[in-house]
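task queued by scheduler; priority normal; single chain, no ligands, no partner chains; default sampling; output format set to structure tokens
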Amino acid sequence: MNKIIDEIKITQELIKKPSVTPKDVGAMNVVASNLKKLGFKCKMMSFQEKGTEKIINLYARYGSQSPNLCFAGHTDVVPPGDLPSWSSDPFGAKIKNGYLFGRGVSDMKGGIGCFIAAVSEFLKSNQNFKGSLSLLITGDEEGIAVNGTKKVVEYLKKKKEKIDFCIVGEPSNRKKLGQMIKIGRRGSITTHLTVIGKQGHIAYPHEASNPSTPLIKILNELKTKPIDKGNKSFQPSNLEITRINIDNTADNVIPAKASATFNIRYNNIHTHASLKTYLSKIINKHLKKYNCKSEVKFIGTGTAFLTKPNSTVKNIQRIIQKETGQKTLLSTTGGTSDARFIKDIAPCIEFGLVGNTMHQVDERSKLSDLRKLKKIYLKIIENFFS
């Protein structure tokens, strides 16, 4: 019989591996060794694009039949920050006052620990169930995300590996466990814009072309003009200006260049291509009026997607509501996650711990939440294969 894995102990074991992205320092081996004990076939995969760090990833599967329920997550964490500000060692996994403290406990080593614990309990009495369980774990979610889940998904496509549904264990709740399931994410596009004018004396503006004038006009229109009104599943797309720069040390000189950076978090009304067209039209209109040129770079870091609330999603919602007593909302708010890659091969949702201390000093999770999340994952697995 399989040994049941304790969700608290395995999470502590993971926290004690200081796997600050892109370093692994044995965190992935903790996952793999525990899964192997449960009978999983584990495939470690390392990827490294030129100029980047090598990343260790894991795809583990139990069973060969369909349907295949997958859990996805990451073992890498952000740096601990100011060490003296922590009340205990960020990698010490200390328990106090009903909380487990440690960098990555909520984002998202606790989620991984709870799922493995739930799987161990499920397999103890369901070793011959009809279907498969799998885990897709990366060490590159908090970093540039080019050698992690993205590459594993490409590998699984080539191998024609079918995943029927995926749960991403990101901390989807802000205050209480059970508040929210993420069923989609907004896309992200960043624009680096440099307007090129003609340098000159400020007393003779007709002999120069001030690039700051069209830049201000462009930014004003982009910021004041609504991109859309949103829809039933998504809030309105939003643009935020993050940098404005004029590299000019003289107060009596019209500069030659002015630059700005801005980001749009967009809903599924748009695509990267459609927003590129939208932005280019506004930029070019003002450049033409003021006889300036530009250098523009568009960087997309994730497309908007939505997992339609099918029967599986609704069953998961019911289970969470029953176990937590919360009204569980289906949401598309927040930033981005590796679900943006997984959605290409399987419908997916995000549900994990409370994330209101993630990336902060004294990141922590309630012990009661860890136990409850393990139970929720177990109920989801049982329901999925029933």
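post-processing summary
- Residues 199 and 255 are 5 Å apart (CA to CA).
- The radius of gyration is 24 Å.
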